[in-house]
Write a structure and sequence with these properties.
Elements (H helix, E strand, L loop, with lengths): L2 H15 L4 H8 L3 H8 L8 H11 L3 H5 L13
Helix pairs in contact: 2-4
Length: 80
């Protein structure tokens, strides 16, 4: 799995766990819905750390908490 896909999967996982839609996450995090949707699909290949930090604030977790998931254990090497 790529890092981008792992980030997208983690956002979806946290939305499900906290019973949030993407639009409600956008509202509480101060990130536009289009930015979050671009992180979830192929538009954004490199999600920005500032946007990700705002999303973490919306989830009421730290960046460390965001990346503390088995999803990130088997990330593919992306150096080519």
């Amino acid at each position: 799995m790529t890092a981008k896909k792992a980030v997208a999967n983690r956002i979806i996982e946290l939305c499900t766990a906290k019973n949030l839609t993407v639009n409600s996450l956008a509202n509480i995090s101060g990130v536009s819905p289009s930015t979050i949707y671009s992180m979830l699909n192929t538009k954004s290949q490199n999600p920005g750390v500032v946007s990700l930090k705002k999303i973490c604030d919306g989830f009421d977790i730290t960046l460390r908490g965001f990346f503390d998931s088995d999803i990130f254990d088997n990330i593919e090497q992306e150096i080519r």
